[in-house]
Specification:
Blueprint lengths: L10 H36 L8 H24 L1 H20 L4 H29 L3 H32 L4 H4 L1 H15 L13 H24 L4 H21 L9 H5 L1 H31 L4 H7 L1 H18 L6 H16 L14 H23 L8 H38 L6 H33 L41
Helix pairs in contact: 1-4, 1-5, 1-7, 1-11, 2-3, 2-4, 2-8, 2-16, 3-4, 3-7, 4-16, 5-12, 5-13, 8-9, 8-16, 11-14, 11-15, 11-16, 11-17, 13-15, 14-15, 14-17, 16-17
Length: about 525
């Protein structure tokens, strides 16, 4: 079904629109990294336990990820510009609430609200971008700028988080969203053109409840394993209930007239492989940000701003890998030829954390791990994002965009909960064995590093398994072997042409399942 279109905006208005859409994307990216740097300060200020600290991140990513599919559908049917503006204002309000939080519970609620409004903002922003730029060369340039914003936003967030925490207060890591959202909302209201999918929207409420309940149960069950043990009835019950609810969600989606997530979107082998690659990759990235932040600040004694600067090599490695090797190879090789090696290189980065100890220098420890992780991520993410929305109908652009964001956020939520549980358990076991007569500062630091190494090993194992699955599942051939239909369009299960720069969602190619 086609999308209702207004007259095409002029070139100047299109690039002005990209400015304000990009600001919204920058805010989302900033929020993912700026809080990580401030996390040790937040934990000390609000007296949060090691087991609960991950919820400051997970509350945001879980709400974001579990509601993204609904956010994509709301944007498609309600109006992408309208949803974009409402989400900006809501995100700013939730950020203000979080910045003013006086206890852990209020901060948790604010972070969940941020995630909920982010679930509206992310799909509406990406959908506005896809319908604003339809000419291939302009689209290539627009998506190139979009990717640069994502990469630069991570670096800006790391530096801003360190500077704001050092020179002002951790609360400004949340307050900073307010002026960004205000500028994006005012500019978006004046410049953006409304678009929506025609027809009356009937939202899949049972599907929303099933998928949200299932994901919350799995993430909460994983986090409870740290205190209750993996064999406890509560943990097993939560994980089983989560799996059952997700199975119910799949059944609902196969039977309702207007599903929250049409199974044809994820059942396609290329798109499904792309979603899996994104989800697996962020486990390593989120784990690295969490544990390397604590290693630098708690074990090595770095200040927040020095920690932010210490993360810049990872961002540089992503830019070099994505902008150099990956963009040149993407039009010439099958996607798995880049994604699988990228996941294995990232896994090596996480395995390198096993070499860390309290006396390890930055250059021989953290730097090596970051470079490997960054270079691997630069091979994974551009390829996976390029293929994640390939071949869908334009009316499904919001839900396809939401699906890849869902994979990223849910992968991060489950990964953080799982890895934090593994790390804290390994730390507790080390202390039980080595601190029977008291915990000295040196033993405490060694215990933390032991936990980080255990989590890194698990993260590496997950990414290696993911690489094997993607290698088997994502069987798309290289572009020069793509079959071309009589009308000159590329078949749905093939890569996009070299000059497209990103999937051409405006082409209206029928989606199908393989």
């Amino acid at each position: 079904m086609a999308t209702t279109k207004a007259p095409p905006p002029t070139a100047s208005r299109r690039w002005a629109a990209l400015l304000f859409i990009g600001l919204a994307q920058l805010m989302i990216i900033l929020d993912g990294t700026v809080v990580n740097i401030a996390l040790p300060s937040i934990q000390r200020d609000l007296q949060i336990s090691d087991g609960d600290r991950q919820w400051i991140i997970t509350a945001y990513t879980l709400a974001f990820g579990s509601l993204l599919l609904l956010g994509g559908r709301i944007a498609d049917y309600t109006g992408r510009k309208r949803v974009f503006l409402i989400a900006l204002l809501g995100f700013a309000g939730a950020s203000a609430l979080g910045g003013a939080a006086s206890d852990f519970e209020l901060l948790l609620a604010a972070r969940a609200l941020q995630g909920g409004f982010g679930a509206l903002l992310g799909p509406s922003a990406l959908s506005l971008l896809t319908v604003t730029f339809s000419e291939p060369k302009e689209r290539a340039k627009a998506f190139g700028i979009w990717g640069a914003i994502a990469a630069a936003g991570g670096a800006i967030g790391l530096l801003a988080g360190g500077a704001l925490t050092d020179y002002l207060d951790w609360r400004w890591c949340l307050y900073i969203n307010i002026p960004i959202a205000a500028v994006a909302a005012v500019g978006g209201f004046a410049i953006l053109t409304e678009s929506r999918r025609p027809g009356r929207a009937r939202f899949d409420v049972p599907g929303v409840l099933a998928v949200t309940g299932g994901l919350v149960a799995i993430v909460y069950g994983t986090s409870r394993a740290e205190s209750d043990g993996w064999d406890s009835a509560k943990v097993i019950g939560l994980l089983a209930a989560g799996a059952a609810l997700l199975a119910v969600f799949a059944l609902i989606e196969s039977r309702v007239a207007q599903p929250l997530l049409p199974l044809r979107v994820v059942a396609h082998r290329t798109r499904g492989g792309a979603y899996l690659a994104v989800g697996m990759a962020v486990i390593g990235m989120f784990g690295a940000f969490l544990f390397l932040t604590y290693f630098m600040q708690v074990v090595k004694g770095y200040s927040p701003i020095r920690t932010g600067v210490g993360f810049l090599p990872m961002t540089t490695a992503v830019l070099v890998s994505a902008g150099g090797l990956t963009t040149r190879m993407l039009p010439r090789v099958p996607p798995r030829a880049l994604i699988v090696p990228g996941m294995l290189i990232s896994a090596c980065g996480m395995l390198w954390t096993l070499t860390l100890d309290p006396g390890t220098s930055y250059a021989s420890g953290v730097l090596v791990a970051q470079l490997l992780l960054g270079f691997g991520a630069g091979m994974i993410m551009p390829v996976a994002l390029n293929y994640a929305t390939h071949g869908v109908e334009q009316g499904d652009s919001g839900i396809a965009s939401a699906s890849v964001n869902t994979a990223q956020q849910i992968g991060g939520s489950i990964g953080i909960a799982l890895l934090n549980t593994i790390a804290t358990s390994a730390t507790a076991d080390y202390l039980a064995t080595h601190a029977r007569h008291g915990i000295s500062p040196d033993v405490a630091k060694r215990a933390l590093v032991e936990g980080f190494g255990a989590a890194g090993a698990w993260s590496a194992g997950i990414m290696i398994v993911g690489a094997l699955i993607v290698g088997i599942l994502m069987n798309t051939p290289r572009p020069e072997h793509q079959p071309v239909a009589e009308d000159g369009t590329v078949a749905d299960d093939q890569p996009v042409p070299e000059d497209a720069g990103a999937p051409d969602l405006s082409a209206g190619t029928p989606a199908h399942s393989v």
